[in-house]
Amino acid sequence: MTKFLHTMIRVTDPDATIRFFKLIGLEEVRRFDSEKGRFTLIFLAAPGQDGIAEVELTHNWDPEDYSGGRNFGHLAYRVDNIYQTCQRLMDAGVVINRPPRDGHMAFVRSPDGISVELLQDGHLPPAEPWASMANTGSW
């Protein structure tokens, strides 16, 4: 089973963006600040729907110009088995941009270049060929 999790957009003014989405009916459901990474993640959802089709606002603390659609980040889906899903995609000719070497997360791109994040619920134990990709510099 695949479950849609969230869509991520990069924002330059989190407060203004939150006000905008509140007008649509979304509310903040959780927030994560990363001092080391210098970013804030803010998740919005319709009332009572946190965890269902959320919007993730990513605010990078250092100013950036988001030209050419760079402000749209990715779609995210939870999958039953990240290794099997990535193998199925590879078998169909899809390039795995960030393999699931941690047994938890991978990134692929749609034919139109849209980034898609695949997330395992929890972490699967390291498995080949994915685990060795972290050490080879592949991908």
Explain the layout of strands and helices.
Elements: E1 3-10, H1 14-24, E2 27-34, E3 39-45, E4 54-60, E5 72-79, H2 82-91, E6 96-98, E7 105-109, E8 115-120, H3 130-136
Parallel strand pairs: 1-4, 5-8
Antiparallel strand pairs: 1-5, 2-3, 3-4, 6-7, 7-8
Question: Could you explain how this protein is built, in words?
Answer:
- The chain is α+β, with helices and mostly antiparallel strands and 139 residues long.
- The chain has 2 domains: 1-77, Roll (2,3-Dihydroxybiphenyl 1,2-Dioxygenase, domain 1), CATH 3.10.180; 80-139, no CATH class.
- 20% of the residues lie in helices and 37% in strands.
- The chain has helices at residues 14-24, 82-91, 130-136; strands spanning 3-10, 27-34, 39-45, 54-60, 72-79, 96-98, 105-109, 115-120.
- Strands 2-3-4-1-5-8-7-6 form an 8-stranded mixed sheet, with helices on one face.
- A hairpin with a 6-residue loop joins strand 6 (96-98) and strand 7.
- The mean pLDDT is 87.
Q: Kindly provide the radius of gyration, computed on alpha-carbon positions and rounded to a whole number of angstroms.
A: 16 Å
Name the overall outline.
globular
Q: Per CATH, which architecture of the largest domain?
A: Roll
Report, as a whole number of angstroms, the end-to-end distance.
26 Å
Strand content: 35-45%
Structure, briefly:
The chain contains three helices and eight strands; from the N terminus they run E-H-E-E-E-E-H-E-E-E-H.
Tag the structure with descriptive keywords.
8-stranded mixed sheet, 2,3-Dihydroxybiphenyl 1,2-Dioxygenase, domain 1, single chain, alpha+beta, 139 residues
